[in-house]
Write a structure and sequence with these properties.
This protein has 174 residues and is mainly alpha-helical. 75% of the residues lie in helices and 0% in strands. The protein has helices at 5-25, 32-51, 62-84, 91-111, 116-139, 148-168. The radius of gyration is 15 Å and the shape is globular.
């Protein structure tokens, strides 16, 4: 399988930029805690799909809204899961998996991807991997160098880039 590494690099940069924006605007005391990260992440995924992969939305308003809503549901559930089990190291991985599942569902609905289970599986795997990397950086005391949003969203968007490239390939089975 040949991947376009230039596009994957662009997805990684978009993920890091999205994480940086979320890190800068995040407040933990109001409704912006729930709205801000999902709005930024959904908008950045929509922009990356449009301008990096050339995915033209069926509806220019509805498709980004679906991504933002799916990101919002994933973020709220991941936040609730993380706050319930915050003492457990694995809670970061579980929260990442929850967020990845809902972002994958949003991608499949908004972009009409053909390989539904593969896209959801890759975004879930990328979400869990992002949670694992953050848990490891927190365990070793590097969480100040690798903030949560930047780590998780960078890895998630890299996973989305891989999923889109695999989904866009023609199947060799007729």
């Amino acid at each position: 399988m040949n991947l376009n590494y230039k596009h994957l690099g662009m997805y990684l940069v978009v993920g890091i930029a999205s994480g940086l924006l979320c890190h800068l605007i995040y407040t933990s005391h109001d409704v912006w805690q729930y709205v801000g990260p999902s709005l930024v992440l959904g908008a950045m995924i929509a922009l990356a799909g449009r301008y990096i992969s050339g995915i033209t939305p069926r509806n220019p308003w509805l498709n980004p809204l679906v991504l933002i809503l799916a990101s919002g549901v994933g973020w709220i559930l991941a936040l609730e899961f993380g706050s319930e089990y915050w003492k457990m190291v694995w809670s970061w991985i579980g929260s990442g998996i929850i967020g990845g599942v809902f972002v994958g569902i949003g991608l499949v609905i908004a972009w009409r991807l053909k390989r539904i289970w593969m896209v959801i599986m890759l975004t879930t795997l990328a979400g869990g991997l992002g949670g694992l990397v953050f848990a490891l950086s927190d365990f070793f005391g590097f969480d100040e160098f690798f903030p949560l949003f930047i780590t998780w969203q960078g890895i998630l968007l890299l996973g989305i880039g891989i999923a889109i490239q695999i989904d866009s390939r023609k199947s060799s089975i007729f």
